[in-house]
Amino acid sequence: MDGADVDRALGFVNRFDDRVELLFEKLRGRRWADRTFYTASQLGDWGLLWLLLGALAALGGAGRAERNLLRLAAVLGLDSMFVNGLLKSLIGRSRPTVDDGARLHYLRQPLTTAFPSGHASSAVVAAMLLGELGGRRWRGVLWLLGATVALSRIHVRIHHASDVVGGLLTGTVLGRLARRLWPLD
């Protein structure tokens, strides 16, 4: 890949980010969207939402759910180290710039760089691992929650859309590896 190819690829990424940003700009300022996405973004911090759901599933005392909680906690920890510790430091992409006062609600400001989104990656990992516990409806709820957390990072202007896509792809790979290397049964 030469310099012209890199420029074309970066141009495509920037156009993609700009188009998605325009879509989210239409949602910003709508009370339901702001409340939903700000709350989802906060619940996604440190994998809190996913660990809570895993703990609730394990409260029933089923050994499978208890083993899954242990697996989930370990894999989310590895996901965080890989995404936040390695990938983000290697890639070093800056986060979207936001004017002071543009955020309507309080958000913890990340110290890491942007690519890939750790919230998106952990959301996919959690949906894949927690989804093994239940039926179709449970998996649907998990994927809906995961999508909401991932998309929230665009809405609150913490990530570019391509950061979220990168996180979704990273989470898919890590989730599949986790299920293969650490099966529940």
In short:
The chain is mostly helical and 185 residues long.
- What string gives the helices and strands in order? HHHHHHH
> How much helicity do the residues have?
over 70%
Number of helices: 7
The residue-averaged pLDDT reads 89
Overall shape: globular
Beta strand %: under 5%
Secondary-structure-derived class: mainly alpha
Spatial extent as radius of gyration: 17 Å
How would a crystallographer describe the biggest sheet?
A: none
First-last Cα distance: 44 Å
List segments where confidence is low: pLDDT < 50 over at least 5 consecutive residues. Answer: none
Topology, number of strands: 0
What does this molecule look like?
With 185 residues, the chain is mainly α. The chain has seven helices and no strands.
Keywords:
7 helices, about 180 residues, mainly alpha
Layout of strands and helices, then pairs:
Elements: H1 3-27, H2 31-43, H3 48-58, H4 63-91, H5 118-130, H6 136-155, H7 161-181
Helix pairs in contact: 2-6, 3-4, 4-5, 4-7, 5-6, 5-7, 6-7
